[in-house]
Design goal:
single chain, globular, hydrolase, Histone deacetylase, alpha/beta
């Protein structure tokens, strides 16, 4: 099992910017304490790979610094060479994690989950859609037959739903806050809207009911799990009320369901905007730690190995 980091490619953001870019470095430092032998630098996605999910004009505008002011406002991040490079690395990490998962049961991207990026635009701090690129690439290469996106970020996965709308081999499932960004939704194959203040018991019961139906419909070889930390009750952009323990139980439910169904798993961190930032880092560290425990070397047996 390999874990890919992008923190070597920091974003130069204006002082006071609300995007918590520091979390990627802090998370990598925490993971290095218990799984240093699994950490790898993220490779950069190629233009060819990005074109699996994105329009050529948009890809070239990002890579060559031609995004206009409106496009940059929609993304919420100012363009820089570092932004373009880091965005390529974030996608490359999910591609590499997909290949790791198909060989070893699981792969992790310590960033990624950029689910608001559409085919020809970025949005909501998302430049390229790493999961859509990786899933479409794995299908085009014949590595998998079907893919499943389990999006448990607190925000609905509009970009992923839009990009994959005509691809019947990708099933998209998003469970998110009903009264949160994005306000113009693109329907996933299954969307579950949650009211403000939803806590552990209700959230976990709804998820436990949904996952068997999702796996029955999707029958995936490979699942992408957007393990957002932003359903946390201390998240400033979240509006839900899960505890850290509840989020850990959520992660275990998803990972054990994937094992039970024989689906390889890619974990992407997605959102997290808690104050203090260390709460987000703690939540996501535990997500990675659990993946190492469940999918680490020696833990996969023939009954749960990925289908090829």
């Amino acid at each position: 099992m390999r874990i890919y980091r992008t923190d070597q490619f920091p974003l130069p953001l204006p002082a006071g910017h609300r995007f918590p870019a520091e979390k990627y470095r802090l998370l990598a430092e925490q993971v290095a304490q218990f799984a240093p032998e699994r950490l790898d630098p993220a490779p950069a996605a190629s233009r060819y790979e990005l074109l699996r999910a994105h329009d050529p004009a948009y890809v070239d505008a990002v890579l060559n610094g031609c995004l206009d002011a409106r496009q940059q406002r929609e993304i919420g991040l100012p363009w820089s060479m570092q932004l373009a490079e880091r965005s390529r690395r974030s996608v490359g990490a999910t591609i590499a994690a997909s290949r790791s998962a198909l060989q070893q049961g699981c792969g992790v991207n310590l960033a990624g989950g950029t689910h608001h990026a559409g085919r020809g635009r970025g949005s909501g701090f998302c430049v390229f859609n790493d999961v859509a690129v990786a899933a479409l690439l794995m299908l085009s290469e014949g590595q998998i037959r079907r893919a499943l996106v389990i999006d448990l970020d607190v925000h609905q996965g509009d970009g992923t739903a839009a990009i994959t709308a005509t691809e019947d081999r990708i099933f998209t499932f998003s469970m998110h806050g009903a009264r949160n960004f994005p306000f113009d939704r693109v329907s996933s194959d299954l969307d579950i809207d949650l009211p403000d203040g939803t806590g552990d018991a209700e959230y976990l019961a709804i998820l436990a009911d949904a996952l068997p139906r999702v796996f029955a419909a999707a029958s995936p070889d490979l699942a992408y799990y957007l393990a957002g930390a932003d359903p946390y009750r201390g998240d400033r952009l979240g509006r839900l009320a899960l505890s850290q323990e509840g989020l850990a139980r959520r992660d275990r439910l998803v990972m054990e369901t994937c094992r039970r169904h024989g689906a390889a798993l890619v974990v992407a961190m997605a959102g997290g905007y808690a104050v203090p930032i260390t709460d987000t880092v703690t939540i996501q560290t535990e997500t990675v730690r659990l993946a190492c425990r469940i999918f680490g070397a020696g833990e996969l047996d023939e009954t749960v190995s990925p289908r090829r």
